[in-house]
Specification:
Blueprint lengths: L4 E12 L2 E13 L4 E5 L6 H8 L8 E10 L2 E2 L5 H7 L4 E4 L3 H4 L6 H13 L3 H14 L16 H13 L5 E5 L7 H18 L2 E6 L2 H7 L2 E6 L2 E7 H6 L4 H8 L39 H5 L5 E3 L2 E3 L9 E2 L1
Parallel strand pairs: 3-8, 3-9, 6-7, 7-8
Antiparallel strand pairs: 1-2, 1-4, 4-5, 9-10, 10-12, 11-12, 11-13
Helix pairs in contact: 4-5, 5-6, 6-7
The protein binds adenosine-5'-triphosphate (ATP) and magnesium ion.
Length: 324
Amino acid sequence: MAALLSVNDLCVKYKTFEGIVHAVNGISFDIPERGTLGLVGESGAGKTTTALSLMRLIPAPPGIVERGKISFGGRDIHALSEAEMKKIRGNQISMIFQDPMTSLNPVLTVGLQISEAIVAHQNTSEREALKRTQEMLEKVQIPSARHKEYPHEFSGGMRQRVGIAMALACNPRLIIADEPTTALDVTIQAQVIELMRNLRQEFSTAMMLITHDLGVVGEVCDRVAVMYAGEIVEEGSLEQIFEDARHPYTTGLFKCIPDIEEDSSQIQPIMGLMPDPFDLPSGCCFHPRCPSCMEVCRVERPAFLRENGRTVQCHLYAKGGVTQ
Ligand SMILES: Nc1ncnc2c1ncn2[C@@H]1O[C@H](COP(=O)(O)OP(=O)(O)OP(=O)(O)O)[C@@H](O)[C@H]1O
Ligand SMILES: [Mg+2]
């Protein structure tokens, strides 16, 4: 069966006064209908750029989508007119942002904002839209009577729940959640994650969850893509990545997670910093920080090796794998 979303060799750059930022460098991945992909990586890895590309919202200038094919529901996103794309945004693909204040309008009541989105996309009457809005608020555990309130009257966690209600209101086929819980307290984070997990199942929506928190991925996702310096260096099922990570960057990420029960001296940060996006290293972009770096890693970009439904881009596995 064809995937709901299929990204092939996507490459996005930003042309700035300081030089060219190589934000996304030839990434490929699929999300099946109802699937959940966690996109994990350090700050600056290119996660938001990837998300914005799917919505065709890369600011241009400075952004340039240099190459790559994105197909959604069998349609080539780049071939659509802006009017057709507007119908897809919010209706078939919707986004949840890190800071819900960026997606909510401070001068409109939350109820009006949710129902406006419904009227715009679903061709319903205002009365029906209000009814649906109230249902959606109840679904995210906000009393429906509060639809008359403004965003500033809600707490951060509640605002994020309003954002979730808005994202789900038109019953989209794909939700892109970009660091949806990063700005929240840990306890509220857990509630929002639980809510997203339940609603996603209830609505049968596919999801791309962007986060730097592997714990969140473990709670919600069935597949994981690990992004480093604009590349997906490893991708696989949750089990493959959590139980049997291959790429030295992925194993490094797991060693960075503090474990409450274990001695904190066990934490081993990944040495060094992400490469300068203006001037990426030769060969494998992780080689300057890699504890297993070999001579070939400095000069040759590793091929994508596919095996048992997983992909890894690392010279350590060059033998025996199947090259793309
Ligand atoms: N509008 C822009 N103009 C110039 N450079 C940009 C722009 N947006 C992003 N970049 C650069 O592109 C690279 C990737 O950024 P992106 O925001 O996609 O990363 P990210 O993985 O989402 O990071 P974070 O975890 O901090 O949100 C970074 O080096 C960033 O500085
Ligand atoms: Mg980001």
